[in-house]
Specification:
It is a single chain. This protein is α/β, with parallel strands linked by helices. Helices cover 43% and strands 20% of the residues. The chain folds into two domains: 149 residues, D-Maltodextrin-Binding Protein, domain 2; 93 residues, 3-Layer(aba) Sandwich (D-Maltodextrin-Binding Protein, domain 2). The strands form two sheets. Strands 2-1-3-10-4-11 form a six-stranded mixed sheet, sandwiched between helices. A five-stranded mixed sheet has the order 7-6-8-5-9. α2 links the parallel β1 and β2. α5 packs across α9. The longest helix has 31 residues. 37% of the residues are buried.
Length: 308
């Protein structure tokens, strides 16, 4: 059995090894950050499943690499949860997430918005919410929805739930919520007469009419981690912008949740979403799928070195 001096020596060696490993890892991380986009150290972006699959990710990575003159890799994910976790990884430099997921990533990981997706022929920077009813519905006021079944997408949907929830709360109207999972399903429920109204995004829909406008929120952002050197980030930002200048680029953007381009934005613009959350008394962490679990796991300290 080792004596006290031997045990102290072994413990000292283990501590020294842990310190050396930490220093080496820090130096390696610094090197990776300073050389991001070069050789086998690409700028890595994450793409939520709402914004594209593996094919879209591969094409977007190739297009951004060409326009930026850098190595850019875009990683698709099968779930929102996986996308959020990847956004917090030290090997990922940015990406595109749904608005609420982004806001939680901003809160937990310190990422920041630099661009936003724009849509439509005129490049709309915002998405508007509405409560819609059938064209032949006798309902003409929001107050008439009281006690009636109303379709919502899910609690993490801005136009499909949160904006409408704020309006109903402001009008002191309580309805029977029917959560459908997506906008198309909500509209289908309304058309079939299973609900009397549906909360969704604004748009022309035959056989339906808008009962009330519920407000607007900015489109989702393209974000970057502050660890990415600004000069490298700016080249990727410029590459996104350049995509909208060509027919091929616009076709690719259209596959990213029907985007037609990008526009500059900062995090102040997303204060309106936080206002909606506050008004409806919803905690951000409770609206992102598995948000509390993700945050708790992300905040856990790493295990101590062996021998400690």
């Amino acid at each position: 059995m080792a004596d006290h001096g031997t045990r102290r020596a072994i413990a000292g060696v283990l501590v020294l090894a842990a310190v050396v490993a930490a220093v080496m890892l820090f130096a390696l991380e610094r090197r990776k950050r300073s050389t991001a986009g070069k050789g086998d150290n690409p700028v890595v972006l994450v793409l939520s499943p709402a914004h594209g699959d593996a094919d879209v990710a591969a094409r977007l990575g190739a297009a951004l690499s060409q326009h930026a003159g850098l190595a850019v890799e875009v990683r698709a994910t099968p779930t929102r949860k996986a996308a959020f976790e990847l956004a917090g990884s030290p090997t990922v430099d940015g990406g595109i997430l749904p608005i609420l997921d982004y806001l939680l990533a901003h809160q937990e990981y310190g990422v920041g918005a630099h661009l936003q997706l724009v849509r439509g022929r005129h490049g709309s920077h915002d998405v508007s919410g509405v409560i819609t009813v059938r064209a032949d519905s006798p309902i003409t006021t929001v107050e008439q929805l009281a006690g009636q079944p109303v379709a919502f997408v899910e609690r993490s949907s801005t136009t499909g739930y949160l904006l409408a929830a704020r309006l109903l709360q402001d009008r002191r109207v309580t309805v029977q919520p029917v959560f459908t999972g997506d906008h198309a399903a909500s509209i289908a429920q309304l058309e079939a007469g299973k609900v009397v109204a549906a909360a969704t995004f604004a748009g022309d829909r035959a056989g339906l009419r808008v009962l009330a406008e519920t407000g607007t929120v900015p489109n989702e952002p393209v974000f970057f981690h502050p660890r990415l050197p600004p000069a490298t980030r700016d080249r990727v930002v410029a590459a996104f912008t350049a995509l909208a200048a060509s027919a091929d680029g616009r076709a690719l953007l259209a596959r990213i949740a029907d985007a037609t381009g990008v526009a500059p934005i900062d995090d102040d613009a997303y204060g309106t979403v936080n206002d909606v959350l506050a008004a409806t008394r919803h905690a951000l962490v409770d609206l992102v799928p598995d948000g509390r679990d993700l945050v708790e796991r992300g905040r856990k300290p790493p295990p101590p070195p062996m021998g400690q």
